Amino acid sequence: MKKQLAALAACLAWTLGAQAADIKLVVNADQPGPVIHRNIYGQFAEHLGTGIYEGMWVGPDSKIPNVRGWRKDVIGALKDLKVPLVRWPGGCFADEYHWREGIGPRAKRPIKVNSNWGGVPENNAVGTHEFFDLVEQLGAEAYVNGNMGTGSPQEMAEWLEYMTAEGNSSLAQARRKNGRDKPFRVHYFALGNETWGCGGNMRPEYYADMYKHWATFLKTPENNRPKFIASGGNDQDTTWEDVLSKSVKYNFDAIAHHAYTFPSGKWEGKGSAVGFPEDEWISMLSQVSKIDNTLAKTTVVLDKNDPKKKLEIYFDEWGSWYDPEPGSNPGFLVQRNTLRDALLAALHFNVFHAHADRVKMSNVAQMVNVLQAMIQTSKDKLVLTPTYHAFALYTPFQDATSLPATIENNPVYKVGATEMPGLSATAARGKDGKLYIGLVNSNATQSAELTLQVGASAPKAVKGKLLTAGAMDAQNELGKSAQVVPVAYEAQAADGKLTLKLPAKSIVVVAVEG
Ligand code: AHR
Predict the structure, then answer these.
(1) Is 513 a known active-site residue?
(2) Per-residue H/E/C for 420-434
(3) Alpha carbons 46 and 69: distance in angstroms, whole number
(4) 414-435 burial string, b = 16+ CB within 10 Å, else e?
(5) Tell me: the pLDDT tens digits for 17-43?
(6) How far away, in angstroms, is 44 Cα from ligand 1 center?
(7) N or C: which end of the chain has fewer CB within 10 A?
């Protein structure tokens, strides 16, 4: 009873609050901020579970329609999403990956054990050439993560030479013999992954020295030089960013940071992907503010050590992580994907946009079948997850110019002891010249109304898409009708006011007209 009364009081406070002080979104269209790099919408594909094998790669002889082994349906859906960049081959897998085992005739490639992920056989069918075929089919940029854990500076330098050499070196000739005449275009190259953990359990100072040593030998033609990425910190720890930005100078363009979100906030006993109470809804969504704080702290550190702003921050692993789907191989990181994940993604985007001066890439973990996936497959079927639709709604923000957007009288959303701002907003001028607004109503039970002001005036109308559903854990399941799909959304000005109605637990992305 007490709980019900408290909920009623919270609901009244929300409604009265909204009546007492109107919620207003003010966008300053004449104060352009940094460009929101399209690679903020990057993806991550690791040799993990069915993330690559089965989920994307079926091999050229499969009955599932494919182009040179890559599933046509999956590639089509990812192209629709305008995937700008793919990171490969890991993750933890990267630090045990030896590139020579993934080139040459597939039947002759060695079969290894994927010791990080379920101990299953890894037949190396997807290697360097197959990965570049994937990104070229997608029209995406390539981010290759090098092995610093069990490799050597020589092995790493030779991989780069194999991929990028133009001349007649033995490695360039070997690449040609394996079917690729022109060099591959390597846009980004990382030295190790999570070197504080699965990548070698190092101290930041030790890794910084290793980085300086190994990076010395990484050479490519000038027109094919990737941006070089150091493995940075985890969660809220910015020590790695501090140590690296103070000491590394050569072949150093960016620092990778990771932060996953668990309902319980802990690695052990993370919480369930479905069938959760509202306090686990808010515990997930409210944690995005930690990422905002970490980025703010990182900015302070980098502005001190790198005042010319040469270094970029890449959030190259993020997303929801739940207890594994019952009955699945726990090493395959299979989890359901619900409306909560879609909102979690949209809140991340809003935060990344707000830090677009330093954050020039992010990679959701992961692209297909693993963790917070865009796509889930089973045999020849696929389903687009709610997270896919959140990414789809936000595509106009790729390479858009960010604009200041402030919510006045933002209502507080509170469940038990956890509270967060009820609404989150972002605004940008798209490459097509239109003004776009992204809005998230995190409140699971209460709708909200806000008026929109651009500069000093109210626009005439907005048009776009809305994503919501009846239940917090609504999902799109194979063989069932999808519960979370975007629908058309529009609002017109009346009496000189443009009011947007946001249903509970929803995402709205609109273009402003007039
Ligand atoms: O994305 C799954 C794993 O999470 C990655 O391999 C690793 O880098 C991180 O711990």
Answers:
(1) no
(2) EECEEEEEEECCCCC
(3) 17
(4) bbeebebbbbbbbbbbbeeeeb
(5) 444 479 999 999 999 999 999 999 999
(6) 10
(7) N
